[in-house]
Amino acid sequence: MSEQLPLTLPVRAASGREDFIVAPCNARVVDRIDAWPKWADPVQYIYGPAGCGKSHLASVWMQRHGAQLVQADTINPTTKELDDWLSDAAADTGLVIDGFEALPTGGEELVFHIINHARANNRYVLLLARLAPVALTLQLADLRSRLAAIDALAFGLPDDTLLSALFDKLFRDRQLAVDARVIQYLLPRVERNFHDIAKLVARIDALALSRQRAISVPLVSEAISSGAMTNDGSWGIVEPSI
After folding, report:
1. CB neighbours of residue 137 within 10 Å
2. 214-239: per-residue pLDDT in tens?
């Protein structure tokens, strides 16, 4: 029987605070976010690999605080959103800067002023990155110094308990009920990388749709053995060598 071309449907991820999976590898980060507004420093720095939950927690905090989001790679000396944020010192609005490792050199001076402004006016700023502050390649020494003084928090590697819950959540986000035996089969066969796990779940879903089969251990085994990460970050078919 020929395979059907799977129909790409939108995936609605559960992204409320109650949907976040708390485990030893992320408990300190969750505690810090939950402690707002009683932060010792109004500027916080959280880092970890793609898909670890940084954006999820930041979204929860943004909803609580009415904060705005800016992508670091868009920041330059005249970024209007940040100029407006700085000029409205009396406003009780927070700021999230995501993808901080991609901050252009031209935006470093502005971010330096944002950190100083936040501390002087007790305004809250949340910096999200994949890298620790010491691993950033920043040109502005003053900004490096400011970041070094922040009590940065990292997401640790997930354990089996967290991975099991993560697989369950990702499948449920796709409206899929998967037997616990499938998840137990997956655990020792995947890299402990949140982003790749999400890609694998998408791959399994697409394969099940194309084969018109329920998700089972044999189907998951096929998805793992026939799938490989391509340069664009998607799961592709590996052609057998001849």
Report:
1. 9
2. 999 999 999 998 765 444 444 333 32
To which CATH superfamily is domain 24-152 assigned?
A: P-loop containing nucleotide triphosphate hydrolases (3.40.50.300)
Calculate the dihedral angle through the C-alpha atoms of 148, 110, 47, 45, rounding to the nearest 10 degrees.
60
Mean pLDDT of 201-214: 93
Dihedral (CA of 186, 192, 196, 197) sign: positive
Distance between CA atoms of 164 and 186, rounded to whole angstroms?
9
d(CA 12, CA 94): 26
Residue 75's nearest CA partner among 121, 36, 125, 149 is 125
Instruction: Give the whole-angstrom CA distance, residue 187 versus residue 240.
Output: 25
The predicted model scores a pTM of: 0.73
What φ, ψ does residue 117 adopt, rounded to 5°? -65, -45
222: left (phi over 0), alpha (psi -120 to 50) or beta: alpha
